[in-house]
Amino acid sequence: MRIVLVGQPNCGKSTIFNYLAGYKAVTSNFPGTTVKYTSSKLRFENEEVECIDLPGTYSLNGLEPAEREARRYLLHQPVDVIVNVADASLLSRSLELTLELLELQKPMILVLNMMDEAERKGLVIDDRRLSELLGIPVVKTVAYTGKGLTEVVRQALQVKREGRIGNLIPFSKDVEDVIQEVAQKIRERGTGGLPARFLAVKVLERDPEFLVMGGDGFDDERRRLEIRHGRPSDVVISSERHALAMNVYESVVKVVSPPRQSLRERIDDWVMHPVWGYGILALVFGALFVGVFKIGSMLEEPLLGAFDGLWGSLEGLLPGGYREVIKGAFDGFAAGVGIVLPYLVPFLFGLSALEDSGYLPRVAFLLDSFMHRMGLHGKSVLPFVLGYGCSVPAVMATRVLESERDRIMTAILAIFIPCSARTVVILGLVSYYLGPLYALLIYLLNLAIIGLLGGLMSRFYPEVTPGLILEVPRYHVPSFRIMVLKTWFRLKEFITVAWPILVAGSALLEALSQLGLSEALNRGLMAVTYPLGLPREVGITLVFGILRKELSLLMLFEALGTREVLRVLSEGQLLVFTLFVTFFIPCLATVAALGREIGWKRTLGGAALAFCVAMAVGLGARLALGISGW
Amino acid sequence: MTLDRVPPGKTVRVLSVGGGRACRQRLFSLGICPGELIKVLRSAPLSGPLMVEGKGGVFVIGRGMASRVLVEEVP
Prior knowledge:
By secondary structure, chain A is α/β, with parallel strands linked by helices.
């Protein structure tokens, strides 16, 4: 038994999914957060139910990769029940997708989510009448409080048992006649298991994917529609569907009180103000980083001190031969607790709050014209902001962009954004030893270089996209529970994947140096370290940095044999090292994600670009700071 | 006139939506289709995007896209 959640972006599918399945899908107040489907099994009244959360899609047109993913799943995977989630406060628009889904002829229910918001807008929805018109059950819910969600599963099981598929509401007679003619021809050719009427509509909409499937030969039919209505056949079909949705909407919805001038507009007046908006933007992100640094540095020292004490009492108990290697593993473990977590936890928490508040789409509004300077548009802001958390979701988030060129460019530029691991290096090294101002300068330099790269890239690949179109959701006070769950969800990745690598890597480094191998490696890496004016010993830390960015920092302590790095490195060298690590080749996980999203050849190009930029920035910094050779 | 020339605070009616098939369908699915009313709420500086409100909700639309939407003033 498999139920599939389908709906338009930001209607709360993932919130419903998480309520039913435990926190397994990242939710945020930004349209298009889910870019691939998530699945989870749950038990309900002694029945095992597999629940699938699909990426949000405005229609079944598949205009962007995330939408195509949703459509592909619906058409080609076994689906027992479609659970169509709609934002009740935007019902007229949501109904257009509902009408399209009904054409798939599968058991289906309609969930009217965000009922509280609809009430606030003064909408009264006659759910019984709606259910009669569509021929499917309609359930009212408020997902973030959990209201009505058990009923969703109960109704889904019920329609599956009854095999109840909804009504097909016909278009106006002349259009419907053409659809039926095309459908008949498609039926004769074979539908490949898909409903013929659905295919006919897609063919008339000139959907490229189905033009190939159905073969063509429907030019006559399309032309007939075009001549009769005086516009392209896809416009005829969408107008029909729009009119139908409006009809349904008007017969079930009453507006009892006019919408009040909302708080939202008053906040927007400030946040999206042509001058104050940018000040607030700088303040918000500045506060996030300063806050993370303050909390992190406050915790770092006592934690590391505690581990040093612990090692002191452990040391004597260990057998002599392996002591150094065990010390390496212990340091890796300690660094995870003492250096990474103090910065990572507050940062992820802050990022969650930012995502859930609904502020980010406003940032897209503010930065759109700047993004155009580098040949992108405002929607690329989301992958960039996510990039400060981790490059992997950032690269995946490019799926919300419509054009392939924008996706490739955004993905390659997003890997230059310092992820939380690199933030740990920047805050734990530069900020900690040289002061937060230097860290801030690194972030600004990073943005400037990304802008420069974007400008250069769009010179070679000129902008062709029509530009930005992005829904602006309501503000939402982030729920503490969701923020904790989300932070934990992202932290798990560090604990299960990165931490073991830290421990093993740290032990390996010790073993290598015990065997005298690290010396050889470092000698080979002088090709990189020598021109940058860095001591030879740091060479190996850069190699470990490819596994995980935090490793560069921890290995640095390990390689130099002290945490008092300023005794061994000059301040300038510290800066050059951090800059190099910030821009250097992305970690393996990012490379893998990038390969999947944009292809391996481009990924190789991106990694090579990153290396060149890191070298150039490192050399530039060395010259600017006047560091002599080692 | 085209949507990108509408000053903030004004409500207009959509006459037609140009652009390619994909651009058109995206605008349609957000409720920007012929006959519908749209209110321009604000516009970003430096020829940045517009923020508009229609039956389909509130959204941000770049100048490029807005220039493909033909509108008329409503009295």
